[in-house]
Amino acid sequence: MRPIRWGALALACVVVVAAATIQPAQGQGRPGPRVIVSAYPRDFRNLDPAHIPGSPDYQIAMNVFSGLVRYKRDSVDVEPDLAERWRVSPNGRVYTFFLRRGVQFHGGYGELTSQDVKYSLERILNPATRSRYRASLSIIETIETVDPYTVRITLKAPSASFLAGALAFRPGYIVSQKAVEQLGDRFTFAPIGSGPFRFVSYTPRQELVLEAFPRYFRGAPQVRRVVWKVVPEESVAGLALQKGEINHMIVRDPQVYRQLQRDPNIGMTATPTTGWWEFTMNTRRRPLDDVRVRRALAHTVDRDTFTRTVLEGLGSPAYSVIPPGMIGHTDDVEKYPRNVQRARQLLAEAGYPSGFRINVVYEPSEYAELIATALQQWFREAGVDLQLVRLEAGAWTARRQSGDYDITISGTTRFDPDQFLTEQFHSESFPPGGNQSYYGAIDHLIEAQRTAINARERARILVEIQKKVALDVPFVPLFNPVYVTAYSKNQKGHAANTAHWMTRFEFVTFE
Amino acid sequence: MRYLVHRLLVTIPTVLGVITLAFVLIHIAPGDPAELVLGDYIGVTPEVLAEVRERLGVDRPLGVQYVTYVSRVARGDLGRSFRTNQLVLAEIAGQAPFTVLLTLAGVLVAVFVGVPAGIVAAVRRNTPADYATMTVAMVWLSSPSFWFGILLIYVFAYRLGWFPVFGAGTWGDWRSLALHLVLPAAAIGVRSAALIARMTRSALLEVLGQDYVRTARAKGLADAAVLLRHALRNAAIPVLTIVGLDIAYLLGGAVVTETVFSRPGLGKLVVDAIYARDYPMVQGAIMVFAVSILLVNLLVDLSYAVVDPRVRYA
Question: What pTM was computed for the model?
């Protein structure tokens, strides 16, 4: 039996060596008094506001950083954050922000002043930073520090989305100049902000720990510590929540949702988000270049059954490109009610009485697989044969950038219409940009809403955009996802959170 | 000793071949690392994409990238991850202990369950015990590890509450490490146990019929002594081979098990890297796998000599 003893010996050696070389995780990963342990499905990659690649990192940043303005707790309207108040010049181009005094950065990096604001925004605009958010701030002409507590930002042109679309969003977070310069590359995983929580530690692929910042300018939050555990499998996270190993999680899987609903010790909030899932038709490809064909396919969609039975209520039917809760939203658009008869009729008019074959190319993340399968069934009823081409993320980027697909599926969450109108519907954004339908008929409207100073005028243009897009159907909205958080019953304050698949823990309290 | 040096020298061209193959394969795969680095791409302009390609160095001709890469590897520099901008070697080193731990625990489970089961089946050949053992082995072999993992979690962690539902525990806290290890080790171990059980059974059956076993019995040795000291020792070589292959396979990462149990580890690391077209990470990890598999094979070959004195290397 010698090999077995060898195995035991080797195991012991490895354990000893590993223990000697590995830093123990600093975070204590047990739910306790005022400690939240949350499961997050993906690992973190970059916490620097200039580079945030997606939702996991944004989730951290929104708890660690403050901006001049921020989204209200239950809407995508903005409210003062670091700026106590601000003034906009009559021509809409000059914003003067008056900062709170005495705001402290985490980690003893001192008081936040107008210089940090100027530095943070200019850092994103600086090509050497290679920030993916440069375009969203490119409307800025100059940033001046009038005094340590006053910043004046001059825009190249008036911008209706400057506050909600840029300053309250990821690129608007203010970093400590001193910290960025001192920490260099390490800032990626040692972010210094002035928000309610300070960063404590990150253990790759395991956990990330934040702690309440006692000197937070609104007062330290009730939650003392937040630990995010990386748990890729949502059903496992559900079991961990029921067993009490974690006490907070995001629910996206309809089956887990149903399972947790039956547990009396679990509380849940379900809130509509300003996000959407849709399918996009490539208007450069035959036969999708014919609007009658696109309308025919839209008529096959059965949103009600899909949201009720497949999603178990984790989404509400969507008809407009601008989701409810966002400025200008209207549901008074062409809805293409489910009508297979009408769909067949339109196809016959377009010269396809016996249907045709097209493909849907997509990355099977989150709801995409469910949608693709549903589309295949719906289209089949109208005689259209839909080929499913599932690609992993990398292969998908190559197909997307070269416009090689008939139909694609995607889901997004944003806060201001300008953020996605420009990227998904402006002809400047044809692939490799984000306008996957090659639809270029509303450029003038997108530009007009961007520079409308008056909110009512802007809303009028946005309504026009929604009606026009619905008529031309390059893009078929399917549902607005519902954001579900599940948590142990003693937590309160998981209030309406229309904007994110995320939680701002400063609002959470305990019984 | 000369044998050892020779074997170690042979690994160099092998590793170079593996590096080249990994380089070619990951570059053939379609995909733009820059877009994947930038994340949920809304708002990214073509200029920013181009700048990121330049920073990553993927805008240069493939040949240049290859030569640069190999010369850096020769100096021990595996580069930085595209995804996280951390050192590839550091990331691998951070994950490796979890993988090694899980692999060894899995193999322990496999051997401690598989060998006795195989012995029972061989000794009680063609009895209900034999059939039962082999049937269970068959079921285990063919059950998907994802399903089996979830089942273990549901029963032993959630229902019975004996073990934690997820995670890998904290280094330095042995109790926590061990508790977190049991279920994943069982999940990957039983599969190999099934294989080992079948292998032990057939190897033993072959040996039990041989003359020296009859001689051992004839000189009055107890059944157990015959079995453990004489027969099993000769049946050990095929079993060792399986164990060696198994270790090599598991070091490459038990992706599914790591995912189900939310454990860090090399399997998940490399799969994520492939999805993200994180070229330096994929190449670095594959190189490390290649080296460790070569070393394990060498160890297995050497252990043959320990188990069976007739095997000599010169």
Answer: 0.85
